[in-house]
Every structure is written in structure tokens, then in C-alpha cells.
Amino acid sequence: MLSIDKIAYESKLKDVSPILKTVCYFGLLVYMFLLSPVFQSVGILIIAILTIYTARMTIVRYIKWLLVPLPFLLISFITIILTVSTSKSELFFSAHLFGRYVGATSASLEMGYQLFFRSFGCLACTYFYAMSVPFNQILYVLNKCHLPSYLIEVTMLMYRFIFILIDEMLLIHQSQSMRFGYQTVKTSYHSLGLLFRVLFLQSMARYKKMMIALEMKFFNGDFPLN
């Protein structure tokens, strides 16, 4: 079981109605989209405190979770604020590069500033939702939204195989590391190639075992979701 999934099953909010939690989640997303960065910052702080309290986790662990997608947010922020221009006067700050000026305008800085807080706020909301709603409750919500059963079943199977792939990958990587498989660039490439090959073969073997288990339970192609 993944850490975030284990946290959701142990959350203080696990017994609260999943419909109510989903409605609150979308309400928080609307809050983060519509209000200014000042109110977004206050919302992020409150959501962070609630997440730490309800998920029974430490501040350090929560910060580590937030740091995982932070590089992607920073790359998006830098991409938005940077502008290429032939005139230095248009830019708030700039650097001369290949006969042109690369920098940022006041408008791009404002846009990047708003986008960063909006994205970070939505991330905090998503973590709060993911750490308080177990996956079986998410399936329940999808079912109540009258989504096609095939879509829900595919979602469930994909979620299941995420665990299979991650478990197999961690075991193989740990085994390779103990045998010094990542000491040099050459051995690292060789070990990665073996990892992907063995991961594919073992995943297929686990899939076949799962299908055999389902057939032994008279599986007819339809998962009961109610």
C-alpha cells in the first residue's frame, strides 16, 4: 500500500461522507481559482494545518510531500515570466543573449505570481482530499456520479496495477543497488534496462495470477461497485 493511501485509510475524516468531502474539495478549488493570492495564501495555511491534523502526520513529512511537485511548479513559473524581446525598455529585468534581451515584464511577473499561488493552492486542496478519502470512497463517488461502469472499472484496475508496478520496481532496484548496479553511468544504464525488462515480465506474471484468482471466484467481467 502506498503511503498516501495508508494515510487516507487512517485519517480522522475517513468516516465522513465521501460525497460531502468531494463537494468541499471542489468548493476549495473554486476558492483557489477565484480569489487573490493573499486569500489563497491564507487558504493554503489553513488547509495545511487541517491536513496535518486529520492525517496524523508531522509537519516535516507534509513539507516533503509538497516538495515532490514543487520543481514542476517552478519550471512552469519560470517559463511564464520569461520573455524574449528586442527592446530592453519593455522588460522589468533582462539579460542580453544572442542579440536579444531575455527577461520579464511586470505583466508576466504578475501572471506568474498569480499562477504559482493558484497552482500551489489547488495542490494543497488535492493533498487534503487524497489524504482523507480512501480509494474505495472515490469509487463510490464516481459511481454516484453515474459515470460509465467500464470507466470506473478501468480506473480501479489501473490503481491496482500502480501498486504492483511500484512494489516490483522498488524490490528490483533495491536488489540491484545491493549488487552495486548503479556505481557508474555504464552500469546504471545496464541496470535500468534490466529493471524495465524484469519489471515488465513480473508485472505480466502478477497480472496472470490475478486473472486466475478472479476466474476461481467466478468473475464474469463485471465488478460490483455498489
From TrEMBL:
<feature type="transmembrane region" description="Helical">
    <location>
        <begin position="188"/>
        <end position="207"/>
    </location>
</feature>
<keyword id="KW-1003">Cell membrane</keyword>
<dbReference type="GO" id="GO:0006824">
    <property type="term" value="P:cobalt ion transport"/>
</dbReference>
<feature type="transmembrane region" description="Helical">
    <location>
        <begin position="28"/>
        <end position="53"/>
    </location>
</feature>
<dbReference type="InterPro" id="IPR052770">
    <property type="entry name" value="Cobalt_transport_CbiQ"/>
</dbReference>
<keyword id="KW-0472">Membrane</keyword>
<feature type="transmembrane region" description="Helical">
    <location>
        <begin position="147"/>
        <end position="166"/>
    </location>
</feature>
<dbReference type="GO" id="GO:0043190">
    <property type="term" value="C:ATP-binding cassette (ABC) transporter complex"/>
</dbReference>
<feature type="transmembrane region" description="Helical">
    <location>
        <begin position="115"/>
        <end position="135"/>
    </location>
</feature>
<dbReference type="InterPro" id="IPR012809">
    <property type="entry name" value="ECF_CbiQ"/>
</dbReference>
<protein>
    <submittedName>
        <fullName>Cobalt ECF transporter T component CbiQ</fullName>
    </submittedName>
</protein>
<dbReference type="Pfam" id="PF02361">
    <property type="entry name" value="CbiQ"/>
</dbReference>
<feature type="transmembrane region" description="Helical">
    <location>
        <begin position="65"/>
        <end position="84"/>
    </location>
</feature>
<keyword id="KW-0812">Transmembrane</keyword>
<dbReference type="InterPro" id="IPR003339">
    <property type="entry name" value="ABC/ECF_trnsptr_transmembrane"/>
</dbReference>
<keyword id="KW-1133">Transmembrane helix</keyword>
